[in-house]
Amino acid sequence: MCEYCGCQAVAAIDELTREHDRVVNLMGEVRAAHRAGDVPRMAGVAREIAAVLGPHTEVEERGLFPALAGDFPEHVAALESEHRVVEAALGAAADGTPAEPAWPEHLLEVLEMLREHILKEQDGVFPAALAGLRTEDWERVDAVRQAFVPVRG
To answer: What is the pLDDT of residue 10?
Structure first.
């Protein structure tokens, strides 16, 4: 992903980027499970993606996006809307393998949208944050991470 602007030198963006990388790798696992016709495995990996994106989305929506919304309200609103679409598709697998026959194909479509979404964040949001956020904005992002993301050990 993005490494050209230096935004990964900021710990908050570096962590968000690493989460994006984890999700992209898991998306590959979903595609492999789909090719194998293993819908239960697709559902299991969807739950893994949701586990990464749950806290990640909190950090973005409660920490990063509010600091950018004044300058980029339409972009922030669109990204938040895409978060809801992803949450719904992944949420369908929260309690097991969805019975809906169209779910596997729908999940693949949503994950393709998610890949584009990640690129928008990496190539647009993160560099904009690096250029425009103040110290107190970064402190809020860090506080949200502390509140919503379990400590890694």
So the answer is: 79
15 is written with which tokens? 């962590």
Tokens representing residue 101 in the block = 């026959």
Dump the DSSP string for 117-151: HHHHIIIIIHHHHHHH--HHHHHHHHHHHHHHSPP
pTM score = 0.90
The token pair at 47 is: 């739950």
Determine the distance from the C-alpha atom of residue 153 to the mean position of all C-alpha atoms in its chain, rounded to a whole number. Answer: 22
**By the 8 A CB rule, do 132 and 121 touch?**
no
Question: Which of the 8 DSSP states describes residue 93?
Answer: T
Nearest CA-CA partner of 90 in 113, 72, 73, 69: 113
- Rounded to whole angstroms, how far apart are CA atoms 88 and 86? 5
Distances (CA, A) of 3 to 106, 109, 110, 122, 123: 31, 27, 25, 9, 9
In this structure, what token pair is assigned to residue 12? 């908050």
- 49 pLDDT above the threshold of 80: yes
Under 8 Å between Cβ of 92 and 47:
no
Amino acid type, 134: R
Q: Which of 6, 11, 42 is nearest to 127 (CA)?
A: 6
